[in-house]
Protein: Embigin
Amino acid sequence: MLSARHTAVLLQLLHLVWSVTDGSSSSGTPPAPLVPARPPRTKNGPRRAEQVELLKLVKPGAMNLSCVLDDFLGATPDTIRVSWERDGVEIAQSEVTVQRADGRYSLRKEFFIERPGNYSCIFRNDTQEVTKAFLVTAPAMKEVRDKPVVGYVRDSVVLTCKIHPAPPAWQWYKVNGSEKDAVNTTAEPPRYKVTDKGEEVALTVMNLTEEDSGSYLCVALYLIAPAEGAVHLRVITFVEPLKPFLAIMTEVLLLVSLIVACELRGRTRAAQATATAGPENGRNVSGGEKAWPEESNGVEEAATRQRKA
Ligand SMILES: *[C@@H]1O[C@H](CO)[C@@H](O)[C@H](O)[C@H]1NC(C)=O
Ligand SMILES: *[C@@H]1O[C@H](CO)[C@@H](O)[C@H](O)[C@H]1NC(C)=O
Ligand SMILES: *[C@@H]1O[C@H](CO)[C@@H](O)[C@H](O)[C@H]1NC(C)=O
Ligand SMILES: *[C@@H]1O[C@H](CO)[C@@H](O)[C@H](O)[C@H]1NC(C)=O
Ligand SMILES: *[C@@H]1O[C@H](CO)[C@@H](O)[C@H](O)[C@H]1NC(C)=O
Ligand SMILES: *[C@@H]1O[C@H](CO)[C@@H](O)[C@H](O)[C@H]1NC(C)=O
Ligand SMILES: *[C@@H]1O[C@H](CO)[C@@H](O)[C@H](O)[C@H]1NC(C)=O
Structure:
């Protein structure tokens, strides 16, 4: 007993609900691949970085760094001067003269490395330089996720970090503006639980409130330098993901009740009409036509169909 117009609107709404449901299921499409930004190349600079080697250290210690060069920018002088730099600053009295031997220039120096940094050897003559850099770092956190972890109010949530090798200890922080507050696992009532499994650590945040939303830092406390990872948490209420759906459902229900109201009105009038026109003759709605002139064709049609059924 729906009028053509009402039916059309309802169909549109249903289509809307459909496409919203559809959209949420196809939201997992992978993002466009990121194009790595290439650093500009300085072809004719006086200093040429020949090689960079990454060294991961977990604790301070002695280490032999060795530099080998086959030729000096195409030339093969008998000797070449080499000095060392740490973080761009020349290490005093580090310059030595290296003899060409076995078709190359080779030297080694033992360092006691206390902290991450950039150690480089610089081969040079009076006009040109060639460097080899060793970038000493602490291990980095694995599988860093940029999407936030979602938790529900009053529920609990588990945040995890992974690193290799296992650090001597882990620490969690909650970011508060520019500050970071150490997570207190002994406070009463307990809000946090830390599970340290060596290479993996888990922070359970219990009894979530919306104030628990934000960034958490897991810190692997290596002796050479701490390694940090960030996990973002978003605490939402149960209704939040349903909100757009509920809005549409409300509209649909409103419309349906409107249609039902119209229908009831129509039925009453149709009943009046049929009372005059006779119940068996479906086509004979002359009484009705008189009651509703031209504009309410839809309701008249509906009334007709209703009587047929
Ligand atoms: C560096 O090399 C020297 C000479 O071969 C050696 O005596 C020393 O033990 C080495 N140091 C380390 C940390 O391996
Ligand atoms: C320095 O080395 C470059 C490249 O091998 C060479 O062209 C240049 O003549 C050298 N300069 C001096 C002063 O030896
Ligand atoms: C490391 O130091 C060398 C020489 O000082 C420099 O050429 C290189 O750009 C530095 N690398 C980084 C990543 O700082
Ligand atoms: C965040 O920092 C401010 C100022 O340092 C402090 O007043 C507030 O209590 C902190 N919030 C939490 C949740 O610790
Ligand atoms: C953790 O909270 C408890 C109880 O509030 C307090 O006694 C303790 O000092 C706190 N620990 C730290 C590391 O802040
Ligand atoms: C959770 O928090 C509410 C309000 O802050 C509190 O009443 C309740 O006791 C807490 N539940 C647990 C298990 O800590
Ligand atoms: C239907 O209408 C026709 C003409 O208006 C009339 O002759 C006939 O009696 C009506 N039938 C009924 C059942 O009222």
Notes: Helices lie at 4-25, 243-277, 286-291, 297-308. Residues 16-45, 286-294 have pLDDT under 50 and may be disordered. The longest strand covers residues 226-236. The chain has three domains: 47-137, 141-238, 241-308.
